[in-house]
Specification:
Largest sheet: 6 strands, antiparallel
Strand content: 15-25%
Structural class: alpha+beta
Strand order of the largest sheet: 2-1-12-11-10-9
Order of helices and strands: HHHEEEEEEEEEEEEHHHHHHHHH
Shape: elongated
Length: 438
């Protein structure tokens, strides 16, 4: 072959590589674009966008960082009550309410900026600046008799025979046959520290501090800890259950997987059948997700935190068994021989010749999974009926206490951050030492 032939061959190879590169650079974006196009129509993104409600989204977001006060008039008895979030636990004493509610034969609800609702003996009136006066007379037989200042009904007013709803920037009014109700939003988490029946409600930090110094610190803490609206005691217990599920599941799996891992390694188990059965067992238990094990175990043992811990334990036993067996297959045999030369028995060889070699891998993996399982325990708790996951699910199902949902989510994030810091700190202390040579 001549030099010219060689150059031609090299040139042909380079041209081929260049062409493949061009095709790859062009083909990959095209495939990605084709896949995204398929996803766009397969998941019906246009349909989902058409179903989306921006009003509901804005209400959801506002509910996360605010609360609403309900002023309710029973149309049958004429009684008027005021309650935070409409709950009995947040209800004002009879005949009492915030400063913007004036009780009387006609109860006046001042929503500020000229917006005013009046609960008369028979008629509900809503004075709206720039629009006029709305009247609604509820009748149990005829329904809602609504009178509007204009025949053109704006989109923020919904009127039917059985219900009238008016949405304004300053508040909302809903009138049905049985009751009339005003909703007014305020920023913050009302009653987070103390409920209305507490003597410490409405007091500032300086007042609370002075009363605590005066000897009321125990009573202040008790009122906060047993808060009926935010249930701080129950929330703390739920977080403890979630952490307990993660701890029991993770460390229980590690203790079970470590001795089983010896049966799945070539250098410690010469019988091939036992090795194969052990490895397939690891594949089986880790191949089923912990959520599936949760459903199965809840059916067998009933709901509870222990069921969630067992689900984590079963799944992680397979994962740890695989990790530990791979670590055992890579141990240094010379260290084992050195321990054996001292006359150590087989158990002592494993204890002093094997375990110290795999301890860094064992601890790092166990602590990593502990952090991960803290998040998993939240979801598992929602299924098994335990932990902070249960409280989060209950708050979501109610579709009204979204400030509690945001509160629980914040606590979950803080819990995961703490476990991340704690596992990192513990890993550093146990594997790298405390920095002083110990």
């Amino acid at each position: 072959m001549t030099i010219g032939d060689t150059n031609m061959a090299l040139k042909g190879q380079m041209d081929g590589l260049f062409l493949k590169k061009r095709l790859f650079n062009f083909g990959l974006p095209a495939l990605v674009l084709l896949y995204l196009t398929y996803v766009f129509f397969a998941f019906d993104v246009p349909g989902l966008w058409a179903k989306a409600s921006m009003d509901n989204a804005r209400t959801l977001v506002s509910d996360i960082y605010s609360y609403k006060t309900h002023v309710t008039r029973d149309n049958r008895s004429g009684d008027v009550s005021v309650a935070i979030e409409g709950e009995r636990k947040g209800e004002y004493p009879a005949g009492e309410g915030p400063a913007w509610v004036e009780f009387g034969e006609t109860t006046v609800v001042d929503l500020e900026d000229g917006y005013e609702v009046r609960f008369g003996p028979e008629t509900v009136e809503f004075d709206i600046p720039g629009y006029g006066l709305i009247r609604a007379t509820p009748d149990r037989r005829k329904g809602i008799q609504a009178e509007l200042p204009s025949e053109v009904v704006p989109d923020w007013i919904n009127v039917s025979k059985n219900r009238m709803a008016v949405k304004t920037p300053n508040g909302r009014l809903t009138v049905t046959r049985n009751r009339a109700e005003v909703f007014r939003y305020f920023t913050g988490w009302e009653l987070f520290f103390f409920t209305l029946d507490s003597p410490y409600y409405g007091q500032g930090p300086a007042e609370l501090l002075s009363r605590a110094i005066a000897g009321e610190s125990g009573a202040i803490w008790q009122d906060f800890w047993t808060n009926k609206m935010w249930r701080h005691q129950d929330v703390a217990w739920a977080i403890g259950e979630t952490l307990l599920m993660a701890f029991l599941g993770t460390f229980g799996a590690a203790m079970i997987a470590l001795p089983l891992a010896f049966l799945g390694t070539r250098n410690f188990m010469p019988i091939r059948l036992i090795r194969m059965v052990t490895r397939r067992f690891f594949d089986f238990v880790r191949g089923v997700d912990s959520l599936i094990w949760t459903v199965v175990l809840a059916r067998a043992f009933g709901p509870g935190p222990l069921t969630g811990a067992l689900a984590i334990l079963i799944t992680d036993t397979g994962t740890f068994g695989k990790i530990f067996s791979e670590a055992l297959e890579n141990v240094d045999g010379k260290q084992i021989e050195g321990v054996a030369s001292t006359g150590a028995k087989p158990i002592q060889r494993y204890r002093f010749g094997v375990i110290p070699q795999i301890t860094p891998v064992l601890l790092s993996q166990v602590l990593y999974f502990l952090e991960s399982n803290t998040r998993s325990a939240t979801i598992i708790g929602a299924i098994t009926g335990g932990g902070i996951g249960l409280l989060l699910t209950q708050a979501i199902i109610t579709q009204k206490d979204w400030e509690e949902v945001s509160y629980y989510i914040v606590l979950i994030i803080l819990m995961v951050m703490f476990m991340d810091w704690f596992s990192g700190w513990l890993r550093k202390r146990l594997i790298q030492g405390d920095g002083d040579g110990h």
